[in-house]
Design brief:
- By secondary structure, the protein is mostly helical.
- It folds into 2 domains: about 50 residues; about 40 residues.
- It has 3 helices and 2 strands; from the N terminus they run αββαα.
- A two-stranded antiparallel sheet has the order 1-2.
- The two termini are about 60 Å apart.
Length: about 130
């Protein structure tokens, strides 16, 4: 029975290797074709660029953006800058800490209930 399992595993492994090798050869062929097409397109672009007159690009208009985190309203557009207080700077870390604390307390209460651990169940938070 064990010998049959080993034979089956070997056959599966050989099939997978054959599939991988055929897939990789197909990918290589696709890459070669794409490379040839891109080289042809590049040659065409170079010819068109040589014939076209040269123009300087127009300078882009730069709009100043407020630095730092911004509050979002219901429309999803930027609003007033958040206060530079502790909560404004560390809001995400603070909320993540609260979430971790909640999960730990929930786990502690679950362990106390499942294993009927009296000292956990007697804590003021679980009364």
């Amino acid at each position: 029975m064990a010998r049959r399992r080993k034979d089956i595993k070997k056959r599966r492994k050989v099939k997978e290797e054959q599939q991988v090798s055929t897939a990789s050869s197909e990918l290589e062929e696709d890459l070669v074709e794409e490379q040839e097409e891109s080289e042809e397109a590049l040659d065409d672009d170079l010819i068109l660029q040589a014939d076209a007159p040269r123009r300087e690009p127009a300078p882009e208009k730069v709009t100043p953006r407020p630095s730092g985190p911004t509050a979002r309203d219901d429309t999803g557009k930027g609003g007033e800058a958040l206060s530079s207080g502790w909560f404004g700077r560390n809001r995400e870390n603070f909320l993540l800490g609260l979430l971790v604390l909640y999960v730990l307390l929930l786990g502690l209460g679950t362990v106390g209930e499942l294993f009927e651990t009296e000292w956990i169940l007697n804590l003021p938070i679980f009364r």
